[in-house]
Amino acid sequence: MRIAVIGGGWAGLAAAVEATTAGHEVTLFEMAAVAGGRARRLPQGLPGLALDNGQHILIGAYAQTLELLRRCGVEEAQVLHRMPLRLLDARGRGLSLPPGAAMPAFVRGVLSASGFRWSERIALLRMATGWLLSGFRCNPSLSVAQLTARTPAAVRRHLIDPLCVAALNTPSAQASASVFLRVLRDALFSGPGASDLLLPRVDLGTLWPDAASQWLVGHGAQLRLGQRVMALEPGPGGWRVDDEPFDAAVLASSALEAARLAHAHAPQWANVAQALQYEPIVTVLVYAPAMKRLPAPIVALDADDVHPAQYAFDLQQLRDGGATDTLAFVISGARSWTDRGLDATAEAVLAQARGELGLGPDARVLRTLSEKRATFLCTPGLVRPAARIAARLYAAGDYVDGPYPATLEGAVRSGVAAARALTHDA
Questions:
Q1: How do residues 121-131 score in pLDDT, each as one tens digit?
Q2: Of 99, 125, 101, 126, which is closest to residue 111 (Cα–Cα)?
Q3: Residue 285, by phi and psi: left (phi above 0), alpha (psi -120 to 50) or beta?
Q4: How many folded domains does the chain comprise?
Q5: Is residue 398 situated within a structural domain?
Q6: Distance between CA atoms of 202 and 50, rounded to whole angstroms?
Q7: Which of 97, 101, 322, 324 would give a disulfide with 48, using CB separation of 3.0 to 4.6 Å?
């Protein structure tokens, strides 16, 4: 079949690679000048340092993403720094999972967790055991805060809340407990290495979109970058994309862009896609000359109404050169901070960094990055648009109905699923 993939983010690239692998003739349309979508390299970086639109994390459970990296010739060790799950602050307090089988590693990690009382550790184990016995299922109307309401306050504040906002980009009071449990099940209990953190050693373009684009061109696909699709119409046995005939199409653009193109043909689907609400993520890059190295490439921070960032990344430990004395501070679920303004947010992060990490007075903000629609707000009972829009027309994106929140793995899985579904439709 001739397949049009509209959108060149991670979902669109995954759909294009999967469809090309299946032997279809693929044309990928992307309105931006480069592929990558909301996990991309920015066109302008800092001297000697390529910048991304935000700091992304993968985990060992991202099986589909890792498989596509390998298929496109990307070696994990060259682009990702793999380390056991560690949610530790600068003083070493928090949870660290040792390597090994999932359940024993979790139990050992909780029992040895620094900064928690024994009663708090036992309460955490009891709660996790309850989740395990329930098959990691709960009432879909519950929020994470409601699910964990009986857990000690220290466990909620220093473990559950930062883990929830990192995984779902939604504060625990609003976040879906059922989706949170699914993420925990796959990350913590699906096998050795599943919970490992995979931190990019390179910019996000080099991580996979560049390699995927080269792979597609090398296997006969067409990439039309810088071209926004204006019209999608039904055609004989398929769809016309800007009046060009295709046998099938995948809408892998943003939910709003997909809704614009699909509205005339599937108004109910488009209305569901348009109704999604979004949460921003803010990244503040800070230069701290001659600073003391952080104890790990990623460090948890004590976020509250005064201190914005939940995590700090030591880019010097991750990047091979070009990131000397540079830290990236990430604020997930950042709506309340973007409402205050990015300048105020950056100043608050700088004060937080000086207080928690001991940065000197010469530390300064290099750049503040804000992704306004980073992810959809993952609330209880959220209705998400289905993958199938119409005959031979599918959607792909991290917002499409599925078990995961808005993650790279969710986007990649949706793209692969859309390509396979079109093959079955044929």
A1: 999 999 999 99
A2: 125
A3: beta
A4: 3
A5: yes
A6: 8
A7: 322
Closest CA to 69 of 226, 259, 198: 198
Query: Residue 322: pLDDT above 70?
Result: no
The full DSSP string for 308-328 is: --SEEEEHHHHSSSS-TTEEE
CA nearest to 90, candidates 121, 57, 115: 115
Q: Are residues 190 and 208 in the same domain?
A: no
Phi, psi of 130 (to 5 degrees): -60, -40
CA dist., res. 219 & res. 94, Å (int):
47
Using the predicted structure, report yes or no on whether residue 426 has a pLDDT greater than 70.
no
| 260 and 395 co-located in one domain | yes
**Type of residue found at 352:** Q
Q: Give tens-digit pLDDT for 202-229.
A: 999 999 999 999 999 999 999 999 999 9
Question: How far is 346 from 145, CA to CA, in rounded Å?
Answer: 28
Evaluate whether 403 touches 182 at the Cβ level (below 8 Å).
Answer: yes
Q: What count of other Cβ atoms lies within 10 Å of the Cβ of residue 295?
A: 14
| pTM (2 d.p.) | 0.94
Q: Which of 146, 162, 195 is the last residue of a domain?
A: 195
